[in-house]
Amino acid sequence: MIKQQLGLFREIIVDNFAGGGGASTGIELATGLSVDIAINHDPAAIAMHQVNHPDTEHYCESVWEVDPREAAKGRPIGLAWFSPDCKHFSKAKGGKPVEKGIRGLAWVAVRWAATVSPRVIILENVEEFQTWGPLTEDGKPDPAKKGKTFRSFVRALNRHGYKVEWRELKACDYGAPTIRKRLFLIARRDGRPIVWPEPTHGDPKSAAVKSGKLKPWRTAAEIMDWSLETPSIFNRKKPLSENTLRRIARGIQRFVIDSQKPFVIGERGNTLIQMGYGDPEGRRVLDLKKPLGTITAGGNKFALATSHLIKLRGTCRDGQTVTNPMPTITAGGQHVGEVRAFLTKYYGSDTGQALSDPLHTVTTKDRFGLVTIKGEDYQIADIGMRMLQPHELFAAQGFPTDYVIDRDINGVAYSKKKQIERCGNAVPPPFAEQLVRANLPEFCVNEHMTKFTRLKAN
Known about the structure:
Blueprint: H1 2-7, E1 12-16, H2 22-31, E2 37-40, H3 43-52, E3 57-60, H4 68-72, E4 77-82, H5 100-103, H6 107-115, E5 120-125, H7 148-159, E6 163-170, E7 181-188, E8 201-202, H8 207-210, E9 215-216, H9 220-223, H10 242-257, H11 265-269, E10 271-275, E11 284-287, E12 301-311, E13 320-321, E14 336-345, H12 358-361, E15 370-373, E16 376-387, H13 390-397, H14 416-425, H15 429-439
Parallel strand pairs: 1-2, 1-4, 2-3, 4-5, 8-9
Antiparallel strand pairs: 5-7, 6-7, 10-11, 10-12, 12-13, 12-14, 14-16, 15-16
Helix pairs in contact: 2-15, 13-14
């Protein structure tokens, strides 16, 4: 009832293409209130949105089927957010034909501008959105007319009284531990200036971070679940592909054997790996704060474990360190994995084979390579690899830890595939939070207030 009464006097917020709720979550982090209206054609996406944003009015239909005037019900709109499908603009699409209808979804923002005049419009898409133009007869973007439709889109907003600016932003600069880069277009008609939020985080090596002006970028290591097992790459029921083995081997060479400072999990994750005998699956994670287990007559094998990331698709040859932000998470599938090298103290003189030829050297796991960590020699006893899990990926996008990702409003469980799709399509919430704070400060609550202490209009 209170929310209904407030709704008569305040501006409302609309999230078009709401998906699983990334933009809505960021807006709520800024304002302390759920968005008023969320629109998406996908029932599964709406169901995830509903369980996390139960106070929102949901429309499960095409954005073109929703009449802005009927949805607004006479209420003024302070912010209309748009995140139209980006895959038919993205360079990840390669040279494949694209769909004109999907590329034209952004025009719905002009429809809202023409009919209900939101005070502020924010649109999010891939950076290639700026190249939006006509297609050739074979369904591919016409290189001679690159950007023509985008410029028409901007002029259409101008005709309806909007000042328009656009800029590319990186999520890691605003507190999300991912390098995801997106184009944002802001249009406003209230005469106030468009404000681009100042970065809150930066490169740890930069002067701004060293001086304390910015926080260091958050890293992949912060959001990884170190308690999860990484099955050995050897003797799997379904062998890994040749390309995957090559990438793993190159990553081990770069981030473990040749690295001056490999990432040792025990130094950050308070873990120690206990090796079983003859069975790499016998590894288990120990807590360094607790006493060691019983030492057997044969002598327990306690080991360090290093970690780095690997991408199973794309042009990445060997992965990246976990001390950097997470690579961009896509909706098309889960292609980011963690590789761990399990290290035991080395007492011999035979260092084994080098990793110059991955397919030949990945044949034995008792003498794989020599690693020196803080002046002590270790040898690689085993290598494990696992795919990152949905809860880690959502954390990498900057979602709150209590965001529900595994079930919908009706308690129906989501498959891992569906969870990853929602995550890959989501706007990293820190983007939306900082853009709203910069451009609609009158809507916003104190940045330090938590989700549980903010005013809720129930």
